[in-house]
Write a structure and sequence with these properties.
about 240 residues, alpha+beta, four-stranded antiparallel sheet, three-stranded antiparallel sheet
Length: about 240
């Protein structure tokens, strides 16, 4: 449809690494009609796709997506803040290893698809390489010590948290307490439509700005390390 013209392009990002070691992912977004004839956004990324109701993503025209996260009845939602300018030498080494990991995973479409689904554990995903933990293997080869380095482990845990591109998933399925935040289009990685509820993960936690919370509050612990090298979080 995109080649023939009926699908209208909204965004197209090639992805890459910037001079200040920031990573963005390739993603394309089109306006299409779903099976019921309703307007929807089609997100495409390395074999993964999402069909998202237009009303759930009103910021796409400005280059941002809205992320929704349900927290059931929890009174707080905690999400890491890195603050790159405050990282010491060891923290910068961890971040560079992390960027190399993301770059390697996104450098090949098949590898990208398999790494974003390596933690999928649902009946719908048993015919793909789910539960392989492939991304962990890549992270270790790129220098991330996920077992012994608290900084690396905390960052890795944060970027494997799942968000949804559709509000109903957070509000009704994983609610009733939920939060919403915005992030640039190039900061997301998509699981494919059948593998979850409009599920995405993010690349850079600092590029997520939460602006709405229902029944809970957002806490952004700042990533730091104590004298023993253990990751600790300070509220901000």
């Amino acid at each position: 449809m995109a080649r023939d013209g009926p699908a209208s392009p909204i965004a197209c990002h090639l992805g890459g690494v910037t001079a200040d070691a920031r990573m963005t992912a390739p993603v394309a977004v089109y306006v299409v009609c779903d099976a019921l004839g309703r307007a929807a956004y089609l997100f495409m990324q390395h074999g993964s796709y999402q069909l998202v109701p237009v009303d759930d993503q009103p910021l796409l025209g400005s280059g941002a997506v809205i992320l929704y996260r349900g927290v059931q009845r929890s009174r707080a939602f905690r999400f890491l803040r890195v603050i790159h300018g405050n990282l010491g030498a060891s923290g910068r080494r961890v971040w560079r290893s992390y960027v190399r990991t993301q770059l390697r995973m996104l450098s090949d479409s098949e590898l990208s698809f398999n790494t974003i689904h390596d933690r999928a554990a649902r009946s719908e995903t048993t015919h793909i390489r789910d539960r392989s933990w492939l991304s962990d293997d890549i992270a270790k080869t790129e220098g991330l010590d996920l077992a012994g380095d608290g900084l690396a482990a905390t960052l890795w845990s944060a970027v494997h948290q799942s968000f949804a591109l559709a509000r109903w998933v957070a509000e009704r399925k994983f609610g009733p307490h939920f939060v919403a935040g915005r992030t640039p289009i190039g900061n997301i990685r998509l699981t494919t439509f059948f593998a979850g509820e409009h599920e995405v993960r993010i690349i850079d936690p600092d590029l997520v700005e939460f602006f709405e919370a229902h029944g809970c509050q957002v806490e952004r612990p700042v990533l730091s390390v104590d004298r023993r090298g253990r990751a600790v979080g300070r509220k901000r």
